[in-house]
Every structure is written in structure tokens, then in C-alpha cells.
Amino acid sequence: MRNSVTIFVLVVLALAVLPGGIRQARAQADPYPAMAPLDQYLIPDENAEIALARSAAPASISDGAAVMVLGRQGYTTAVQGKNGFLCYVERSWAKDTDAPDFWNPKMRAPNCFNAVAAGSISPIYLMKTRLVLAGKSKAEIAQAIAAALDKGELPALAPGGMCYMMSKEQYLNDEAHSWHPHLMFYAAGDVAKSWGANLPGSPMIAVNDPQTRVTTFMVVVHSWSDGTPGPPREH
């Protein structure tokens, strides 16, 4: 967050004092202005994508999980699950459509959702994927998600949803390829304050997404899913 604020301040200064500030600011603020060719988002080897998806959680969880993989027509189930968990590798459009790296083809975010999140969080992302593959713009995607939530076409967030993101192979953005192994918990609305998140000394990090109407709480854990230690947390 601190780096994001710094970049924003520098962009504002560039707009104010540099003749080419507008062009430079656009390049910095929107490094991925359009969707790349679809092949750049795909993982050609299905078995490699299954393994990457499963790396989101310890084997005791992911070995029994259902696994979905991304193809040209969307996500399909490659492995039937036994324990209610669902693993798949998110691409960049999992982010808010206002995110500057919404079209970043390098992003690979292995997630393993419990049954509650698989039934009420995953449908939003899977719908966004269908819209992306249909060639919809970011504005059209945001409008379609909002309409589906308003009409009840997407399920309401159920209590108790959580997700494992403990893959050492995660690529979350260009600045933090493998950030930290962490767990995520979901709550409806903008409720970070009621959880004590983002306060000095609090281990809880929260990000509110007004488009999906969900606050995601993140708790950093010590080890990656394979048991090796994660990086020390910044203070």
C-alpha cells in the first residue's frame, strides 16, 4: 500500500510540472491498457496447471479438492473433488476492473476455496472469466457483475467462506511475485474496521472490493504449502 501511495504522488507531480506528464502518467498508471492475446493467459500443460492450483493449500487439503483449469472457452473441471474444496489458478481479471494490472498476462494466483467460498465467491470470478473471453470491456464487466448481484443471479456471500493462498509459485503482481503465504476470509460489505484490520500491530490485512461487495481479510502464515518457510513479514 505504501508503494502504491508513493507512485500515485509521483504521478500527480509529473502531471503538474512535466510537459510530457500526461503521457508518462498514463504509461505508469495503466501498464496493461488492453487484454493480451489469450495464449498468454493460458497454461498449455493441463497437468502443470492442476499441480499449480493444488499448490495453493497443503496436500492434506488440496489432494482431495476439485480442480478447475482455464481453457479457451472458460474454466472446466479437470479433477473431481472429495472434500468440498475447490482449487484453481486465478488470472489477472480476478482483480477490480479499476486495477492497473487487470490485464496483466503474467499473473498466476493459485487459490483453494472451502465449500462455502466455492459456492459464493468463485461464481463471481467464473462469471468475470466468461465475460472476458466473450470480449467484454472492463466497463461492461463491471456493469454485468453489478446487475447479476442486484438480480440475485450471483449467490449472496455465505458466512464462513475462506481460501488458502500458500503457493510458493504465486505471481500476484509485477512488484510482489511471491508475496507471502496467507489465508483469506470473506465478509459482505466494507467491514474492515469491525475486524480491527489494517491497524498498527494488527496481523489482519483487509481489502474491500466495492464491485463484488466483499471485504477480503488476509492473514499471513509462516510457511508455504510445501512446508518451507515464507519470507519475513514487513513491518
What does this protein structure show overall?
The chain is built from 7 helices and 8 strands; from the N terminus they run ααααββββαααββββ. It has 235 residues and is an alpha+beta fold. It has 2 domains: 1-30; 31-220, no CATH class. The protein has an 8-stranded mixed β-sheet with strand order 2-1-3-4-5-6-8-7, sandwiched between helices. Helix 1 runs antiparallel to helix 2 (21-29) and helix 6 (122-133) packs across helix 7. The longest helix has 16 residues, at 2-17. The two termini are 12 Å apart. Residues 1-27 have low confidence and may be disordered.
Summarize the structure in short.
By secondary structure, the chain is α+β, with helices and mostly antiparallel strands.
- The H/E string reads HHHHEEEEHHHEEEE
- Which structural class should the secondary elements be placed in? alpha+beta
User: What's the structural domain tally?
Assistant: 2
Number of separate helices: 7
Low-confidence stretches: 1-27
On the 0-100 scale, what is the average pLDDT?
Answer: 88
Q: Gyration radius, to the nearest Å?
A: 18 Å
Percent of sequence in beta strands: 15-25%
Report strand order across the widest sheet: 2-1-3-4-5-6-8-7
Q: What would you call the shape?
A: globular
Measure the end-to-end span: 12 Å
Q: Could you give the count of β-strands?
A: 8
Helical content, roughly? 25-40%
